[in-house]
Specification:
With 119 residues, the protein is an alpha+beta fold. The chain contains 2 helices and 4 strands, in the order H-E-E-H-E-E. It has a 4-stranded antiparallel beta sheet.
Amino acid sequence: MRITIIAFTGVLFLTSCAGHRSLSNNVNNHTTEVVLSKKNFKVVKTVTGQASVTYILTIGGLSKNALVAEARAIMLKDAELEENARAIINETTEIKGSSFPFVGNKLVTVSAQVIEFTE
């Protein structure tokens, strides 16, 4: 019986939990309207930005909104929108969390496609 309790305790400390959530809806309020009804654009590339945080005993790190903003800023920097007639479409935000008995991690990934207008 004692061996069973020790084995169960050992297995309990070697396990972890993980979860994944995807936010595929548009959570941004843009004032610019882009109509993609005719083929006057081309898809240039796919860009991604990531931000992560580690929590110890549920203390520390940034909030979810701050992580999303940081990951999005990294993605937009990689998109190089300033010099060209480009826009971001199909933006997706994914949040993955994992936890071990006293330590937890959260990873936010924001990805989108960059289009460039030809006309």
